[in-house]
User: Fold these one by one.
Assistant:
Number 1:
Amino acid sequence: MTELQHTILAVDDNPDSLSLMNLTLSQHGYVVLIANSGLQALKVLHKVQPDLILLDAVMPDMDGFETCQAIKKIVPDTPIIFMTGLSDSEYIVQGLSRGAVDYLIKPINHAELLARVKVHINNAQQAQISKQALESTGQHLAAISHHGHIIWTTAQANTYIKALNNKDLQSLIEWLAVAQQDDVFELVQQDHNLTLTYLTRQKDSSHLIKFKASDLKLEKQTLKLKLKITRREADVLYWVAQGKTDWEISVILSISERTVNKHLEQIYRKLGVNNRTSATAIAIQALN
């Protein structure tokens, strides 16, 4: 018997398979939730977060691969074990690429099932402890597959990812395809500037990314007050300090390049400098 009652969600359209898994796992101290379709599984996950999910690969309407992808958006840190009679490597690779941590070939060997379940629940718990430690030190990290699927993430990084629109997500996926260590990718959000730093490619081929958000309103207000410039000049100077060109600033602020240039002239005069590099150095010092 397990010391703590862990919850497992079993998803399978075969009632006999569900019955056997329920019996086996319940006898070993697990609380078992069942779903006979992908859609039903998603409804369960909006109410309960299990410690592990057992997911059949072949189901009508919404198959296991599609269900896995949807599950990772709701509970990205919950380990998923595929159960499939499809032993061909292409199906196994497809399941793992969608975010599963393991697979079992049907018919299921119950001793193997129990061993895999125990291992992956323990691994998930240790990973959660590590992520909480990272979060407490301000390290907002996520491991993302080359398809853009979340493998694991700290809580705040997950919040940033969920806030991305489809265009930003596509841009992120395109960047991951070419990014190398220490490369930086920036996304301009409504109230903050999101900076992503590429850390490394992990053993499972996922990309480890660090997230950092800057409060745009606060930082622009800081520039305005410390450097005694106007609100619009602070807008322009902030993006100059981020390395943006006049054209990029004009797009971000919805003004013409000529207007950007005029604001820069006033900024240079007020700061007593004559180029972008010097203005950037003063801005960065003010923000720090």
Note: The domain at 138-215 is CATH 3.40.1840.10 (Profilin-like).
Number 2:
Amino acid sequence: MNIKNHHEHRDSSHSKKALKLAIGATAGILVIEVIGGVWTNSLALLSDAAHVFMDLLSFILSYTAILLAERPISDTRTFGWHRLEVFAAIINGLTVFLIAFAIFWHALKRLVQPEEILSMEMLGIALFGLLVNLFVIWKLHPHLENDVNVRSAFLHAVGDALASCAVVLSGGIILATKNNAIDPIAAIFVSLIIVFSAFRIFKDSVHILLEGVPKGLDRGLIIEEVESLSGKNSVRDLHVWNICSHICALSMHVTLSDEKMREQKFILQKIDTILQKKFNIIHSTVQIESEEWLRR
């Protein structure tokens, strides 16, 4: 037990270090892209900065989730503070959506009347941003298997790198062709990426608050696996939901025949193992009932 706890603590420590590095690097590129976007008059850079801002909040949420997981529960909060992550994600989604809409609106106006862009400086800043994104991806990649929060942050970093590629490409085209209309087109493209990502974050967060079935879990498959041990039509009142993005909880009633009641401890242990190994459900409450009890 002590070895396992030490291993989990070490993995958590490494994940936190990687995320702290990602937060620092992303915050730095956010400041540079905002200043650079204003200096070069590039909406594409500002739209990428908005995407970086969304990813920065995601990294902070992931880091916070690890810290919250390490805090002990209390008598008033039996699941701790994990759901704060969901509320923060909703605020994140709404904030970035508004920023993306503002950039999209200004980009449409610039399509009609393009403005002068400092293309060389814009390209240099965009390339620097792409390199930082690739650095963050490189630092997070070794920890993908250890923590679901790091995997989430990694996917955000990949998305940001793709958006940075679009800005770099637009900067190169502007430098080569002197066509300043490319800048608002790139800004619109990145804004659409941001809107899609923000909507997905908002939708997933609301789904968690409404205690919907966690993404990737098949309620029917859970019933099938449990009833392979307990018998056909033995599962009822099954509820499965998310506490936050990476913690699932489950409760259900399992009815056993009189013969199987003698094995109820073994069956309960097997059900618990299946829920953890196959469905990654750690928090489960399974109530065993006898068919004889229900007949009374």
Note: The longest strand covers residues 235-244.
Number 3:
Amino acid sequence: MILDMFNLKGKVAVVTGANTGLGQGMCVALAQAGAKVAGVARRSCAETAKLVEANGGEFLEVIADLSSVEPVERILNETVDKFGRADILVNNAGIIIREDAIDYREEDWDKVIMTNQKVVFFLCQAFARQYIKQGEGGKIVNVASMLSYQGGIRVPAYTASKSAILGLTRALANEWAKYNINVNAIAPGYMATNNTQQLRSDEQRSGEILERIPASRWGTPEDMMGAVVFLSSAAAEYVNGFTIAVDGGWLAR
């Protein structure tokens, strides 16, 4: 049956940025689909753990600061030590620093590129090596952005990093599809998360954004659930290097 292809029972998923927002929602979705979940964040994932367990799932908290590549191997090792394997990696963690490009500081540029781009690559690499070792393939889902396609305003480093994620997703798919590793991405639109609090608090800017979205609303963590389960499942076995927009129609406008 087709619905069986979306079943993640027996799979182990790792989600970065798992303590809140989109990451939390994707943890819950993967657990609902049957996966065991390791949630990675700088701060406590207690709320996420409670939600996962309330949905019948098993949760591992991995406290790690993704402002450097230092915890990459530990994240993988703690997951494998707990669950015996790893099958799905969701690179959701990211930061945004808003400033006019003319005034953007090098230290802020480096912070954004490190977390949003460099750490993502080395997590992909570490998990791909584990998938090859296990010999059964695996799934990598990167979280891109509308700014993978557009320039944005006052977010030069974020736009650069998310444009890189779109390209990196394609590049890794080209190399790793032969190992039955599917590398794809999700590009969320304007979501009601911590990263957009400043925009949503600006009545004029928020209104301008909502006018452009055909669905006429901000997205929610629940809107990401179907896409992440699909790309993490056998239903996406022949989907490679593609970025799915979950944007209420923003790009279509």
Note: The chain has one domain: 8-193+221-246.
